């Protein structure tokens, strides 16, 4: 079984930071491994302190359910099939954009989570991280 | 007082696993007894790690309120009579499909909880478990 | 990276159950994988309901720190180097006997946790599980 | 107000990693700023997953009380003046070696927390990080 090394995580984070700098919005960026456990986290200078936890939870959520938190969010609105999932797992489930799985050979082996801007910004920074994986 | 033995739980889980295999979606399956306490849990290879907690909570919820989590969910949407119930009991209340009570002689004596796919898939796998009880 | 499959977990649990039956003390037995996530759990008929959580936490702890909970406990007494570790990780750290790592080729790839009797009984039942891995 | 930048945190972490490599014990290393909020975290390959939380909490604790967790631990044993402090702050207080304040011009502006080995190893790796600050 493959997973995410610290070197992988640093490469993902570096690419995500570059994108955040381009956007001009400081971000929290977190990477978890195949077990959902944190490998690395950075908070760029000036990024929201409330987003430390959110970036880590977005990464965990994306690995925990092998899905982007954006897509999970769509299915977790009132009346949708997963409404209520945000109350499970001790509050670790994030249901808004910014978390994306990291895959190798078609298997999810980790995830990146980004928090610090709008949902669209967070998701695009996470995508930049995924592209570097 | 009647309850669910480990042998009962294994029969329920085996039937649920068989259904999950047919559907081709790996699942977490949990069974609780008349006290709502876990009797047995399995995570099939490749099933979501975020669903460990959810399967157990769905089983707990179905016994705790003697209702399927699908039906409880219908009553827990915004504007409905139980909206907010998902925030009670320390986060153990699941309000989406996949938990079904286990009854004997018309009395609920336990429950099965399934998590790992769509709401419809989870519910059908739980039904297969119930049928074996 | 190797981990623990459901088939592995069932073999470990079966051996642990056999030992518990010999001792005549019903047990909770849990197995986690390389990420510390639950693979399977059983509560034998008559085993303590308060031990559901403890068996799972012992397994998690043994994988989280690659050590038996018995040995971790020796280092976590007042005045010892890890005193206070039991208050970390949201209360998931168990510092009394019953959790043992599962290793393959010298690498810890999971763990078994047992709770339901004395520390000595729990540890011996866990050892029986490890021997079957 | 002076604090710890991401660049500072990376310099501290790099020095700590170097020391951990010399010791041959993979570590979790975390740095917090003057508000006690996480700036950066890394888990070296093979480091204990249970130490993610502990490294962050050690850093938080050292800034929260402007003291090393080793010294705080000495005062938090049974019978000592701070016994019980490990149960406060939602479980974030670590009372064993590995957390050390980061100071500038005699003022504590952040902290580093290390977890992954013995108390002595964790403390020495944290000291290496402090020296680079």
Distance between the termini of chain A: 17 Å
Secondary-structure-derived class of chain A: alpha+beta
The counted number of beta strands of chain A is 4
CATH architecture type of chain A = 2-Layer Sandwich
Largest interface, chains and sizes: A-B, 21 and 22 residues
Number of continuous helical runs of chain A = 4
Regarding CATH, which class of chain A? Alpha Beta
| Average pLDDT number of chain A | 97
Tell me the quaternary state: homotetramer
Sketch the topology of chain A as an H/E string, one letter per element.
HEEHHEEH
Biggest β-sheet: strands ordered side by side in the sheet of chain A: 2-1-4-3
Organism (chains A, B, C, D): Microbacterium rhizomatis
Protein name (chains A, B, C, D): Heme-binding protein
Pfam families (chains A, B, C, D): HbpS-like
